[in-house]
Each structure stands twice: as structure tokens, then as C-alpha cells.
Amino acid sequence: MDKNIIQASIEEIKEITELFYQEKKDEAFGRLDKAIGNMMTVIDGLFSYKAANADFELDEEKLTNILKDAMNALQDGDVVLLADILQYDYLEYMQEIVESI
């Protein structure tokens, strides 16, 4: 798994969460669509990396729960909660993963 791909996704999500915190919802949602695709690419890559590297620790349940929580916040229209989940759960976990690769 290429750390640069993960890092680029992290930076993209950081920018989007900042837009949500600044209440620039239209711009944030506009960028989120592309970012979700990039997030899925990263997550798929991490699952493949784990399959090929038995010593790589990836908490699939934690990652799945983070994504479920984010989707629920998105469906509820709670952009502050969505931004918090992305910032404090998803991004922090992705940063841990980058450091472990």
C-alpha cells in the first residue's frame, strides 16, 4: 500500500472537515463525493495489503463502525457530527495506519 495515496486522502478529508466547520456546506459536499471514492480506494487497498501482510494490523470492525457512524450523520444532515467523526475518528485512525506501514 502506497503511503502517499493514504496521505493524500487524509489531506483531502482534512480540507473537507475544515469546510464543514466553516459552514461552507455546499463546497464541502461538492468535494465529499470525490473524497468518498478516494477513501474507498484507500480502504480497499488496506484490505488487500492486510491480506498480503499477515503482520499488518487493521481493525476492520473499527473502520467499519467509523464509516457507519459517518453515514448515519450524513443521512441525518448533521454536518458537525460528520466533521467530528471524520476528524477525530477516521483521520486519526488513518494516521495510525500510515505510521504502521
What does this structure look like?
The chain has helices at 3-21, 25-52, 60-76, 79-100. It has 101 residues and is mainly α. The protein has one domain (3-100). The mean pLDDT is 95.
How many runs of DSSP E, i.e. beta strands? 0
How many H/I helical runs? Answer: 4
Strand/helix succession: HHHH
Mean pLDDT equals 95
Strand content bin: under 5%
Keywords for this entry:
101 residues; mainly alpha; 4 helices; globular
In a few lines, what is going on in this structure?
This protein is mainly alpha-helical.
Secondary structure topology:
Elements: H1 3-21, H2 25-52, H3 60-76, H4 79-100
Helix pairs in contact: 1-2, 1-4, 3-4
